[in-house]
Structures are given as structure tokens and as C-alpha cells.
């Protein structure tokens, strides 16, 4: 009995050594091949085995490499709705893939809004009337394959079975609704076979879908690329990081052995590099590249026309930086699929109540549009701000979404110039008196929903406060003004997550979010403040204290000030390289004592402040109106403890939520923050340290303390720095 088991095990182990042709999982019955471009066909076989692939009168051959991999490329194929065989032959084996069509193939990917099916048992997770569309949607010329089950891998894998299905009345209920309607619209207009490859996963970030070469291609993602490559055998980052680990541990081991021999305290081992650590368990599938490895790589480099992409909710925190991540994804996919002409049509996110930070979504909208324009005409964007649901992150009208995506492909790729595909796009603006005159592309005439008034325009003047604006149609132009703003500087459209579009071009395509305006100069801001408010103090920080350590104000009008309702700090500084930095922040008065708005040498004011208006030329500063911020004015030493429970503050670092130690004279702090943005507006600390005081506008990035504590940089970084303090 024992010998029989051994014989069975030996046979089982030897099976992989037998000559066996294994085509890539995507080459199975009912597959649709891409027309009019070279079509790779690949798989594995016995090393050295000659493989021939025959289809549509072509026969091409290849020899399996030492690792068993082989690939051939069929010459561009003509469109065909005839079911024909794809025959793959080896030395002793023939594999036939039946019912093969030739047409247009598209990849459909993203997160849950691409995943949302035509129908399910949950009314919150299905398309409107999706069951009815499925019942009427049988079409043997539309075929699809779904990458299932979901999963992630550290390194690329290909051994996952796939199945191509003809679209029938009973097999599309769980198909991506976006893909369903996109495919139907293309087939209806083109009358040719359509192939849909669906690969999606709800709640996922964009980073897991991106191949390593995509991150490598975008300089702004250098650190992210390093973190990916450090784990990837064969890369320079992997070799360098690994070598450093070896060196560090060898040095530690030598020190450890020496300490043991000398009976001394034993040294701790060096920290294991964070970039080498794979996250396991919950959320592990969100790591960069891991979904690409499992849910995209199995059909690389299959030929297809392009991709439709619906994702971004999970990257909402990226704001405008999302542009670079989209560019990495697109660059990477073009490279791995060997398709430099690949098309990429994305869905701009719909309005939704995320509950906080209402301007993050407009920043994503802006990043999506920027990406589409930067890569046009290969990339395009479907605007859907008219079909969202503020109470449901998954809009249920995917018919409109699919049709708008299909319109981009039909117009740009299939010669249907009669089908309009582009939403109106701001071309130029002009400020005439108290109005913005806006001119657009992709527009012949405007219309609104049910002849409603145009919504969602706001305008700001020099103070940066945006007011609701009225918009009037003037042919293809829009004339926008706000009665509160006599001299407009900036305009926004749909700059809030709850704004829903109601303005369309003649084709029914909505105008997407945008902003425009003219830069407010430092001179204009200063002149405005001087006109509207009274100067109380002027302080040169390069010489802030007299010999007796009192404030050395260049101007002191405090004796002439009685009551005031607002306080404004205007900071004017020049870096050693000549770069000008300035910031103006005004707020409701936080004290009735004019002495307590100046340099805090003999008082303490640490509290929440209200109704801030911020203007600055420093990158990263969140300009505009803010309901709350906080100040930390004191003369004493201070600690990192968040005594005042400022939301979001870190009790372990010096930031926007610190605690004055006592009332004695000490280090000193004069800081204004936007705590909701986790942002220091300006900080002037360690007042008694002269040119070695801490000073900066915006968050400090040179040490772990964003409020500039312990930077001692005033004289080293700046040639001049002044603070002007006003009241109203």
C-alpha cells in the first residue's frame, strides 16, 4: 500500500514536466479580439517547444523560452461577427478556442461606482430598472468577462481562470451597469462585436491599480515609486535598500557581540525599513500595485482600444494631487499593455454629502478635468453632476453615465462627429466693471433644468469672501455678478460638494466645476487693508525687542483705539533668495483690550477665533473664508499637550494645539492656525532670541513641528520680516 502511494505522488509531481500548452486565461471560448491592431496571444509550454497560433487565415509561430513563456502577435484583424476558432498547436497538443469574434474591446475598471451591478436584492445597490434592461439586453455580439474573485497579490500572477460570456437576458444582472450601458451604446451605433473586460473593487484607492512603471513615470510620485520598488526584486531600490539593511544589521551585530563580550548594555537592533513591510489583514488590498498584480496583470498585454474608469471617492483626500496619481495609472497601463495610443475615458465624480471638507470634492473634480485636458484627445471626461444623489454615494442612473462615456469613444475613436461628447469648458474670461464675462468651448446655446435659474456661481472681491452670484445667458456666453462685490477678483462654479449641476449645452451635457480669476497682488491687499482698517502696531521682527525686552514697535497707535470688532494680522517677509512671502488674516475680535492683540510679552490669549478671512501668496495656505481657527499667544514656555482640546491636534508634537506651561516669561508663542485644515498660518516664537527666533508662514516642513517651534531660523532664512496689526 505504501509503494502505491509513493507511485501516485511521483506521478502527481511529474505532471508539470509533461508538455502542456497553457494559453493565458483570457483566451477562452467566446473571446472578442481587438480589430485593426496587432493582437498578442501568449501562454506557457514546455521550454523550447514550438507553438503555432492560427486565426482568420493567419498562422504565426513562437518558441517557448527557458521559463516556458511564449508569445505571438497576430497582424491587425478585420472586423468580423463570424464565430471562428483560434487554434493553438504544440508538438503533441492542440487547443481550440471557439466562437471568437473580432471587434472593439474595452477595459472597465475602478471602484464601487464601476462595480455597481445592473440588479441586486438591495434597492441601494442596483441601476434604475436594471432588471428590465437586462431582460431586453440579450445580444450575442456583446461579450464580457469579469475578473472574479477579487483579490490582491504582492507580485504579478496570471493563474486565475476567466470566462467570456455572450450577453444574455439571464447573465447580466450582476454585470457592471456602467459597462453594460457603455457596451450597448457602442454596439447599437457601430453594429459590430463589442468585448468588455470588467475588473473593479468597491472602496479601493487608485494606487493599488497602478503598475510600478506608472509611479516611475511621474516625478511628483518619487517617494511612492521608491516604496513600491524597494519591495520589488530586481529593481535598484530593492538592491540599495536591502544592502543598507544588511550593513545596518551587520554593524549592530558587531556592536552587540562586543557589548556581550565586555558585559555592557546591549544595543537595540536597527528599525526595519518601513518601505519593506507588507501590510496584512484588513486594508492590505489598498497597498500600491497589489490589485494590478492580481486583477489587471492576468490579461496583460491583451489588445484593446481603451479603458473606462470610474474611481476617486476613496482618494478624495488627495485633492488636486489626484492628478498625478491618475497620470501614473494611465502612463503605466499604456506601457504594460504596449498600447501608446490607448484611450482612457473617466467619469467625473457626482456631488455627494461627504459630511466634511466640502471643497475637497471640487479639487478632485478639478484634478480629473486637468488630467483629461492634459492627455486629450486620448483621454476624456464624462461630467455627471446632474445625475448624482446627495444622500447616496452610488448614483443609480448608470444609463446616462454609460452613454456619456460611449459618446466620447464614438466621437473621438469611431468617427461619429455628429455625436457631441464634450461638456462645456471655460475658454476665457474677462472682468468688465463688476461682472465676469465667461466664454466657453463646446457650446452653441445654453439651457437649464426646467428653465430654472442658473445655480452654483460665487464671486469674491479682494477680501477673498465668496458671495452667491447671478448668472445670465448672453448667447454662448455667461455674464456673472454678485451685488455684494463691486470689484470682482475670483469666480467659482460648483465649488462645494453639495452643488448639483443644472446648466447644459445644446447636447444636454452639463457644465462641470471650475474656477477662475485674477491674482490679487500684495500691493492691492495692503492698500485694501490700509483703507478699510486702522493700523495699531507695526513690528520689525528682525529687531522686535528693545534692550529692556519690551516690544520695539515702529508704530504704536494703541492709545487711539477704543472699541473694535475685527483684528487683522498682515505679515510681510522676504527670504534670503529674494522670494516675497505675505499673508493677511483677519478674524472677529478675541479680546476687548487692544494691548492683547500685539506681541504677547505680558499676556496670554489661547482660544478658538471665529470668521477668519485668509489671503496669502504662500503655497499651501488655504485662502478664503473660514468659520473657525485658533490662536496661541503667550510669553511662557509651552508643551505639546492639547490642553484646549483643539480638534485634530497631536499631543506629541508642537502644532496647533499646545499648552502654555505657566505665565512666567519663557520661550514665547505668537501663532495663528486653521485647525480644521491642520495648518499654521504664521508663527513667531522664541521672541527673546533675536535673529534666532522661530518664524514662518504656512506649515513648517523642516522638522516634526509644523508650528516652527525650535526652528531658530528667522535670521538664517529671512532678510526681512514685519507684522502689521490692524483693527476695525
Please work out how many helical segments DSSP would assign: 13
Instruction: Compute the number of strand runs.
Output: 36
Mean pLDDT: 95
Report, as a whole number of angstroms, the end-to-end distance. Answer: 99 Å
Helical content band? 10-25%
Outline the biggest β-sheet.
Answer: 11 strands, mixed
Specify Rg, calculated over alpha carbons.
32 Å
CATH architecture of the largest domain: 3-Layer(aba) Sandwich
Assign the structural class, choosing from mainly alpha, mainly beta, alpha/beta, alpha+beta, or little secondary structure.
alpha+beta
- CATH homologous superfamily placement of the largest domain: SGNH hydrolase
Shape assignment: globular
Low-confidence stretches: 1-19
* CATH hierarchy, class of the largest domain: Alpha Beta
CATH topology of the largest domain: Rossmann fold
- Beta-strand portion reads 25-35%
Number of domains: 4
Defining traits:
globular, 728 residues, 20% helix, Immunoglobulin-like, ten-stranded antiparallel sheet, disordered N terminus, 30% strand, 13 helices, alpha+beta, Rossmann fold, eleven-stranded mixed sheet, 4 domains
Structure description:
- By secondary structure, the chain is of the alpha+beta class.
- A hairpin with a 4-residue loop joins strand 27 (566-575) and strand 28 (580-588).
- The protein is globular and about 100 Å long.
- The model is unreliable at 1-19 (pLDDT under 50).
- It has 13 helices and 36 strands.
- It starts with a helix and ends with a strand.
- Strands 2, 4, 5, 7, 8, 9, 10, 11, 12, 13 and 14 form an 11-stranded mixed sheet that branches. Strands 26-25-36-27-28-29-30-33-34-35 form a 10-stranded antiparallel sheet. Strands 15-16-21-20 form a 4-stranded antiparallel sheet, with no helix packed on it.
- The protein folds into 4 domains: 1-223 and 281-421, SGNH hydrolase (Rossmann fold), CATH 3.40.50.1110; 232-277, no CATH class; 425-515, Immunoglobulin-like; 522-727, no CATH class.
- Helix 4 (177-190) crosses helix 11 (398-413) and helix 9 packs parallel to helix 10.
Amino acid at each position: 500500500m505504501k509503494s502505491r502511494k509513493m507511485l501516485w505522488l511521483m506521478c502527481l509531481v511529474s505532471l508539470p514536466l509533461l508538455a502542456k500548452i497553457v494559453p493565458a486565461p483570457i483566451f477562452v471560448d467566446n473571446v472578442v479580439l481587438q480589430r485593426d491592431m496587432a493582437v498578442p496571444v501568449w501562454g506557457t509550454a514546455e521550454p523550447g517547444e514550438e507553438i503555432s497560433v492560427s486565426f482568420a487565415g493567419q498562422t504565426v509561430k513562437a518558441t517557448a523560452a527557458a521559463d516556458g513563456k511564449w508569445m505571438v502577435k497576430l497582424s491587425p484583424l478585420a472586423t468580423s461577427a463570424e464565430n471562428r476558432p483560434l487554434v493553438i498547436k504544440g508538438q503533441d497538443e492542440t487547443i481550440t478556442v471557439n466562437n471568437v469574434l473580432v471587434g472593439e474591446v474595452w477595459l472597465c475598471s475602478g471602484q464601487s461606482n464601476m462595480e455597481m451591478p445592473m440588479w441586486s436584492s438591495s434597492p441601494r445597490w442596483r441601476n434604475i430598472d436594471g432588471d428590465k434592461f437586462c431582460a431586453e439586453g440579450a445580444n450575442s455580439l456583446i461579450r464580457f468577462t469579469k475578473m472574479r474573485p477579487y483579490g490582491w497579490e504582492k507580485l504579478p500572477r496570471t493563474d486565475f481562470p476567466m470566462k467570456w460570456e455572450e450577453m444574455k437576458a439571464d447573465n447580466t444582472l450582476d454585470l457592471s451597469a456602467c459597462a453594460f450601458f457603455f457596451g450597448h451604446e457602442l454596439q447599437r451605433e457601430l453594429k459590430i462585436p463589442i468585448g468588455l473586460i470588467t475588473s473593479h473593487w468597491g472602496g479601493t484607492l487608485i494606487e493599488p491599480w497602478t503598475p510600478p512603471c506608472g509611479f516611475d513615470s511621474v516625478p511628483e510620485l518619487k517617494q511612492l515609486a521608491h516604496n513600491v520598488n524597494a519591495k520589488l526584486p530586481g529593481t535598484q531600490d530593492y538592491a540599495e535598500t536591502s544592502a543598507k539593511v544588511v550593513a545596518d544589521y551587520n554593524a549592530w551585530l558587531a556592536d552587540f557581540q562586543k557589548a556581550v563580550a565586555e558585559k555592557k548594555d546591549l544595543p537595540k537592533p536597527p528599525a526595519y525599513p518601513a518601505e519593506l513591510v507588507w501590510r496584512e489583514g484588513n486594508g492590505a488590498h489598498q497597498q500600491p500595485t497589489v490589485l494590478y498584480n492580481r486583477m489587471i496583470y492576468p490579461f496583460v498585454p491583451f489588445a484593446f482600444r481603451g479603458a473606462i474608469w470610474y474611481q476617486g471617492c476613496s482618494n478624495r483626500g488627495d485633492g488636486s494631487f489626484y492628478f498625478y496619481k491618475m497620470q501614473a495609472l494611465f502612463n503605466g497601463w499604456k506601457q504594460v499593455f504596449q498600447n501608446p495610443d490607448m484611450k482612457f475615458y473617466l467619469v467625473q465624480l457626482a456631488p455627494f454629502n461627504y459630511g466634511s471638507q466640502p471643497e475637497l470634492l471640487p479639487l478632485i473634480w478639478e484634478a480629473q478635468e486637468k488630467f483629461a485636458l492634459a492627455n486629450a484627445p486620448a483621454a476624456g471626461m464624462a461630467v455627471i453632476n446632474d445625475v448624482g444623489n446627495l444622500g447616496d454615494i452610488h448614483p443609480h442612473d448608470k444609463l446616462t453615465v454609460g452613454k456619456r462615456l460611449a459618446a466620447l469613444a464614438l466621437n473621438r475613436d469611431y468617427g461619429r462627429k455628429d455625436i457631441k461628447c464634450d461638456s462645456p469648458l471655460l475658454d476665457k474670461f474677462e472682468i468688465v466693471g463688476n461682472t465676469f464675462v465667461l466664454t466657453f468651448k463646446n457650446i452653441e446655446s445654453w439651457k437649464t433644468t426646467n428653465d430654472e435659474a442658473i445655480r452654483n456661481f460665487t464671486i469674491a472681491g479682494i477680501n477673498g469672501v465668496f458671495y452667491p452670484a447671478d448668472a445670465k445667458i448672453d448667447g454662448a456666453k455667461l455674464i456673472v455678478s454678485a451685488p455684494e462685490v463691486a470689484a470682482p477678483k475670483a469666480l467659482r462654479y460648483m465649488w462645494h460638494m453639495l452643488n448639483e449641476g443644472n446648466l447644459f449645452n445644446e447636447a444636454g451635457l452639463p457644465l462641470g466645476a471650475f474656477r477662475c480669476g485674477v491674482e490679487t497682488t500684495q500691493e492691492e491687499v495692503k492698500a485694501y487693508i490700509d483703507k478699510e482698517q486702522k493700523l495699531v502696531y507695526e513690528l520689525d521682527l528682525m529687531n522686535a525687542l528693545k534692550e529692556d525686552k519690551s516690544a520695539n514697535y515702529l508704530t504704536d497707535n494703541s492709545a487711539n483705539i477704543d472699541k473694535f470688532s475685527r483684528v487683522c494680522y498682515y505679515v510681510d517677509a522676504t527670504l534670503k533668495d529674494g522670494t516675497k512671502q505675505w499673508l493677511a488674516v483677519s478674524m472677529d475680535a478675541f479680546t476687548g483690550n487692544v494691548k492683547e492683540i500685539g506681541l504677547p510679552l505680558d499676556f496670554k490669549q489661547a482660544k478658538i477665533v471665529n470668521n477668519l478671512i485668509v489671503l496669502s501668496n504662500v503655497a499651501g495656505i488655504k485662502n478664503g473664508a473660514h468659520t473657525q481657527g485658533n490662536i496661541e499667544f503667550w510669553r511662557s514656555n509651552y508643551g505639546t499637550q492639547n490642553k484646549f482640546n483643539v480638534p485634530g491636534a497631536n499631543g506629541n508634537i508642537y502644532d496647533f494645539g499646545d499648552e502654555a506651561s505657566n505665565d512666567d516669561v519663557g520661550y514665547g508663542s505668537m501663532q495663528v492656525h486653521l485647525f480644521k485644515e491642520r495648518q499654521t498660518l504664521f508663527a513667531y516664537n522664541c521672541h527673546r532670541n533675536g535673529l534666532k527666533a522661530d518664524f514662518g508662514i504656512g506649515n513648517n516642513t523642516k522638522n516634526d513641528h509644523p508650528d516652527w517651534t525650535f526652528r531658530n531660523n528667522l535670521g538664517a532664512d529671512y532678510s526681512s520680516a514685519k507684522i502689521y496689526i490692524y483693527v476695525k
